[in-house]
Specification:
3 helices, Rossmann fold, oxidoreductase activity, about 35% helix, oxidoreductase, 4-stranded parallel β-sheet, alpha/beta, NAD(P)-bd_dom_sf, SDR_fam
Length: about 110
């Protein structure tokens, strides 16, 4: 089957865009951060562990990412309080969000 919609050809610019990537400290998430940064976006790395996030930031800097457009914030997606705190911190810094990549794995969900 074919999904209709815009195709990503790799030449698009993300200059001036604001992005959040969850699970950004390794694997697919870290590579998405790298690509968005290369395309010009300001990227928030939403990581459960600041220590692991800082390691990812160092690795991204080592491969040429512009560190001034990478911001590390802590968030545990299994905690509503942590998510609220993350959102508050983001809203203090930004007035818009252009790109949200929900990449983090979650092992359980709370009862409502």
């Amino acid at each position: 089957f074919w999904i209709k919609g815009r195709q990503f050809g790799g030449k698009e610019s993300a200059k001036g865009k604001i992005a959040i990537v969850t699970g950004a400290n390794c694997g697919i998430g870290k590579q998405i951060v790298r690509i968005l940064n290369e395309k010009g976006a300001k990227v928030y790395l939403a990581c459960r562990s600041l220590e692991n996030g800082q390691k990812a930031m160092a690795q991204l800097a080592a491969v040429g990412c512009q560190i001034d457009r990478l911001i590390l914030l802590e968030v545990d997606l299994c905690s509503f309080a942590s998510v609220r705190n993350f959102v508050d911190q983001f809203k203090e810094r930004e007035t818009k969000l252009d790109i949200l990549v929900n990449n983090a794995g979650i092992m359980f969900y709370p009862k409502f």
